[in-house]
What does this fold into?
Amino acid sequence: MVPLHSHVALSVRTNTITSSVPSSTATVQKTKLPLLFKYRSSKIFVFWTAAVGLFTSTFVHSILFPLSPFIVARIRNLDKDWTDHSKSTAITANIEMTSRDTGILVALYAVGLLAGSPIFGWLGDTIKQRRLPMLLGTTASMAANLLFMLSTTYPMLLIARFLQGVSNACVWTMCLCLIADNWPKDQLGVQMGKLVGFYPLGMMVGLPAGVLYSELGHEAPFIASMILSAIDLLMRLVIIERSSAPKEWFEDQDVQKDTEKCTKTVDDDDLQNSPEPAGTRRVTWVQLLKQPRLIVSLALTAIVATVMSAFEPTLSMRLAQEWGFNAAGCSLIVLAYMIPSIIASIVCGWLCDRYGTKVVALVSLLLATPSCLMIGFPSQERGSFWLLVPILIMGGITIAGCQAPVFPEIAKVVDKENGGSNSSDGLARSYSLFNAAYGVGMCVGPLIAGYLYASIGFFWLCTILSTLFFCFIPLAYFFIGDGRKLIVKNAAAAAVDHHHAEAVMTAEADTIVILVPESNLSLTTVTVPDEASSK
It folds into this structure.
């Protein structure tokens, strides 16, 4: 029988030290908790609050994906018979004007995104409560919906689109921070992958709004958006965030967790080498922008946004010009891109956690290059529009794969800047930089695409966009991921996924190391050294 030491040393992911566990006889002062506190503060509700927020903001934005040319045509009085788009010729007859005005309308969204990102990035790192900024974002989104619904002039559309960009800057930054606040870094790939999967899901649900537009009038899609925004607003109001709620509300949960752990003691050397407490370091904008790993991740985000926003006005015009599609038809065919993207976001997030971000980024970029190029091939002369469907499916998968590595990369850069401590300072700034990069792409994409579509055609536009992915491959290889190794397996994630303890005999005599995966620990290492004598 191996004798046991009188204490057990635990290596905890959060690097906090607890000298003793509260005894079962300790008196815990009962605090009156809010209604349904257990559910409103749970991780499940936190995730769904972030997910619904992201879904709603994307739904509101995606409504204009196929409808922008038709809305511009109606406002400009180019299309007198705008209620029946199957007979409309305004888009094709005035291709240059419609393309230009649609590009400007889409770009105003990016301007709002760029304007709001630094503000909400600073706010996210200054205050830890995410609810209030998200309420402001949802309110701005509802105001934008009202403007779209009631607009009678082109400038009103531009103001509404700008407000929509500001709203999404807030929602994206705060939703990403909400997830990062509640999950450890080695699980962020999966959680962010699931969360970002609601982006194409919102696009997928929002795109059929073209059916509402064609059949029920131009107000119908925006009324649907208002209903979703009201649900989103309600979830924001009832969520309870641990970071901003009184600590005594969570005492029972903390006591329960502590009683499940052993008493923790640490040697003096461990105390001296422990990381800095949270809040002692301040991560600045300059520090973040000096990191090549972050810059390359932001550049990849800008490229993805450029390509997606370039297709936003031009794909609808291509379908209308070549095959006479109306708003409903344009909405439905783009679902071939959105549905695979939802699944791919989750899968690619899991792959990033398991095998590293480099291999996911490189494979996705290699496949995205031909996928983007082939979108320009189908035409009325070359065959049916059905040829677009498999190409759009591949495009949705590869675009999701290009975006998936960005969030784990951001988290690792912030962790490095915080010296490996538990501090998340700089995280909101990083996510606001992500929003800004996305906004740059959203601004550049439609403006360039509108001009190129009218001057050199859709095929050459697709060719130029595909070269962006191809040229980025070397940068992804050298700067994304940990070192030059293509595949880096995450041992901590693998241990957690097995859901069982591993006993490993070390090379040192009479020492056993037990790896016990816990939901809130990366790895819990229990060392049981031999005693000089046994009972």
Remarks:
- The CA atoms of residues 73 and 79 lie 5 Å apart.
